[in-house]
């Protein structure tokens, strides 16, 4: 790919701290490194988190993955789901359809486990990016630079002074919060979470469990009024995954308090599957498995809505900026697309505030469409009455036998596909970063890693 005029590197920001090592953070790190930035990623967890449920790569996100050179890897790690079925109280399949209809996937759209994608992005960046696990940002202080100055140079020039829970204070040209729904960077730079998060009326729990049902790339669904249960098994994984969703108003609890989350979950499903005609008899076993799982996840279906995603030299990316909740099915795709757009704008040679503004303008329409999807699907995921559930089952049983079934399947996918393709990706010029890397330009830590080697080996805080 053609290079750019590197003279802009003398004035534009060059060092970037990213908070969050899930999907959005490492994806942004990948692009920023290619554009010649020195990147540090800080993550509260002590190691890369490889759990989580399956996530879709659709529409514009497929194009971004191809430009990153990871599309083939995603395809190799595909969940390869074959079918989806609704089951009755005894676990008998009462309606079965191809999994792509359940997932509203078309063309090159694919699905991968969140942990597999996180591992893939980490492997692609760990030799060039400084990863700091087991630490978290405690304060952000922006320091103005000299007139016309964009980069961070000697002491006294512009940048963001950052303090950490464990590591020594450091200064960066820019800080990006890619740290999820409960973003620490958003709280520090913009204010309390409650100002920006809107509850969609439901909660979701995900966890691993033994594949006692012998599922092979199949997902089973069961619905009771106000609740949805799902169990599935994906390609290459001997375990199964469970998903439990329930309708509820916002409930106050500590999002890091697992015991409180388990209590809410068990309360919502109390009695389901215990008595005849009282729901799938598997539910009590699923609740036991949730309590024993080492990858237990629980959170609300929530939107993050903000007037601005940046303030000075601090910006937000992915769920931290515009979480569309799992109901949208677009969170991972939006993270990949947002990382591509933001990196391209930061590499343009413009000042950070203008670059953040342009990134936001490019993403706003895309986000709005997917927020609307989330609101719609959050209501549809859980039916209100048994009558609604029976009608849904009837429609699914009839669909394979309808002469217009392909048109119906297309209609089912239309809303999701509209959200997945609600942005046109612009071409951003590549820089000579790859050449600089080959020439041995040091990383952010001053260490030039060998291929496949973590930056700054032996440093207890900064070890990937």
3D structure, described in words:
The protein is of the alpha/beta class. 33% of the residues lie in helices and 22% in strands. The chain is built from 14 helices and 18 strands. The strands form four sheets. It has a seven-stranded mixed β-sheet with strand order 5-4-13-14-15-12-16, with helices on both faces. A six-stranded mixed β-sheet has the order 7-2-1-11-18-17, sandwiched between helices. Strands 8-9-10 form a three-stranded antiparallel β-sheet. It has helices at 24-34, 60-68, 71-76, 99-103, 114-125, 184-190, 258-268, 283-292, 319-322, 331-346, 352-380, 386-398, 405-420, 433-438, and strands at 15-19, 38-43, 54-57, 83-87, 93-98, 110-113, 130-133, 137-143, 159-164, 170-172, 174-177, 197-209, 218-224, 227-232, 240-247, 297-304, 310-311, 314-316.
Could you give the topology of this structure?
Layout: E1 15-19, H1 24-34, E2 38-43, E3 54-57, H2 60-68, H3 71-76, E4 83-87, E5 93-98, H4 99-103, E6 110-113, H5 114-125, E7 130-133, E8 137-143, E9 159-164, E10 170-172, E11 174-177, H6 184-190, E12 197-209, E13 218-224, E14 227-232, E15 240-247, H7 258-268, H8 283-292, E16 297-304, E17 310-311, E18 314-316, H9 319-322, H10 331-346, H11 352-380, H12 386-398, H13 405-420, H14 433-438
Parallel strand pairs: 1-2, 1-11, 2-7, 4-13, 11-18
Antiparallel strand pairs: 3-6, 4-5, 8-9, 9-10, 12-15, 12-16, 13-14, 14-15, 17-18
Helix pairs in contact: 1-5, 1-10, 2-10, 10-11, 11-13
